[in-house]
Amino acid sequence: MKQKSIKLVIPLLLFLIFTMAVKVIDVREIGPQSSFVGFATINQWGHHFFGVHPLWDKLSDVFLLFTILVALYFVIKGAFQWVKRKRLLLVDQNILVLGIIYFIMSCCYLFFEKVVINYRPILVEGLMEPSYPSSHILFGVTVLACGIIYFKRKTVTLIFSLVMIILVISRLLSGVHWLSDIVGSLLLSFFLIYTYQIFANVKNK
Predict the structure, then answer these.
(1) pLDDT in tens, 57-80
(2) Residue 182 CB neighbours (<10 A)
(3) Given 3-state DSSP classes, what are the helix, strand and coil percentages for the chain, each rounded to the nearest 5?
(4) CA atoms within 13 A of residue 86's CA, in its CB half-sphere
(5) Do 142 and 104 meet the contact criterion of CB atoms below 8 Å apart?
(6) pTM of this structure
(7) How far is CA 58 from the centre of its chain?
(8) Which parts pass through the membrane (predicted)?
(9) Left (φ > 0), alpha (ψ -120 to 50) or beta: where does 126 sit?
(10) Exposed e or buried b for every residue in 134-144, given b needs 16+ CB within 10 A?
(11) Are 97 and 196 in contact (CB under 8 A)?
């Protein structure tokens, strides 16, 4: 466990270092209303290369809805176990750990809504919105990857993996995020996924 805990620190450190780097490296006023953006050269290139495509934005929302339904499945399952067994600690360990992962993920989302790293490369209904990290990718990749670990079924792995890939690609092509937003969300997702893998007691169904 000690060795696994040390390995767990690595993806967290990568995310923290990358996040700090976004705030200090190549920061220029390339965002809407002259907002400052880190990694400006590569982010500006990526935004011009991929462009802005509202259709991909809407498609990513559809796949996010699928992810929300998956998360609700686990939340409802955990709630039923809690009510039936009358004690929270009697809920299956893999469900409890998943609940903690969801809680941490939600806290991260709320934190970065208040502590703005970057604003979106486009205005949303005329307003500037925080864009780091991509909440679609953070939520989608974390929930679906943990679902793959939980179920350990080939069909589920195939479907969830396909949805994750499409979600990341659609978010990238939508043009509502900088490249650094995508990378940051993936790094944070990897940390949460590995945390679940270490602490959950998942058995073959």
Answers:
(1) 999 999 999 999 999 999 999 999
(2) 20
(3) 75, 5, 20
(4) 0
(5) no
(6) 0.91
(7) 18
(8) 62-83, 95-112, 132-151, 158-176, 182-202
(9) left
(10) bbbbbbbbbbb
(11) yes
The SS3 call for residue 36 is strand
Contact, 119 vs 31, CB < 8 A?
A: yes
With beta carbons less than 8 A apart as the criterion, state whether 118 and 47 touch. Answer: no
Integer Cα distance of 116 and 130 in angstroms? 6
- Residue 70: in which H helix or E strand, if any? helix 54-85
The amino acid occupying position 136 is: H
DSSP state of 37: E
Q: What does the alpha-carbon distance between residue 4 and residue 115 come to, in Å, rounded to a whole number?
A: 30
**Interval 79-136: pLDDT, tens:** 999 998 888 888 888 999 999 999 999 999 999 999 999 999 998 888 899 999 999 9
Give the torsion sign (CA, 58, 61, 66, 72): negative
